[in-house]
């Protein structure tokens, strides 16, 4: 029995509300159970200097957690004067994931920055950030297309992410914090809407796993990604 009472292959409830901020070119609030992340997209007319005169665009990301996103207050990283290693790793992951679904030549020499701010954390914040970040990116590129600034859609496919792991000896989909903190194996799966893999992060947390178990977790992830892509489609209309 999972702590939440969910079936082994059952996702938490997913909702994506768009247009939640006034100024950002694209924004959404994604809720995956009790994990809530605000995702915004900002269009910058210039690409990074290393892409000058290449005709290629860029998507990058920044990630952060509000001080009371968790059970106890976490000091703001700005107050500490530097980002933690986990933050840097996650925001690089978000950027890599979203670029995998992007035609950078169609975007042109401009950059879109995706900001993912965790309002409330209950496991799977990086996965929710990627899934919601894609929606914010989609809304921003829609504005570029509507204004005629770009003429070809730069988004090749949906991008979404879900966690799957082995909890209490059973394969489960979409781990919440209670499961994630006790999981024997924990994995994050990032895929396109067509089912192609972008990145898999799997690690044993006190126990090992077999190739067959990894394949079973992959099957769970494919099912979860399909649900997330459907939620993305509903959100953007």
UniProtKB/TrEMBL annotation:
Matching PROSITE patterns: RIBONUCLEASE_PH
Keywords: Nucleotidyltransferase, RNA-binding, rRNA processing, Transferase, tRNA processing, tRNA-binding
EC category: transferase
Residues given in the record as phosphate binding sites: 86, 124-126
Domain Exoribonuclease phosphorolytic: 10-140, 159-223
Gene3D superfamilies: GHMP Kinase, N-terminal domain
Subunit composition and interactions: Homohexameric ring arranged as a trimer of dimers.
Family to which the UniProt record says this protein belongs: Belongs to the RNase PH family.
Record-linked HAMAP family: RNase_PH (MF_00564)
Free-text function comment from the UniProt entry: Phosphorolytic 3'-5' exoribonuclease that plays an important role in tRNA 3'-end maturation. Removes nucleotide residues following the 3'-CCA terminus of tRNAs; can also add nucleotides to the ends of RNA molecules by using nucleoside diphosphates as substrates, but this may not be physiologically important. Probably plays a role in initiation of 16S rRNA degradation (leading to ribosome degradation) during starvation.
Protein's name according to its UniProt entry: Ribonuclease PH
Underlying gene: rph
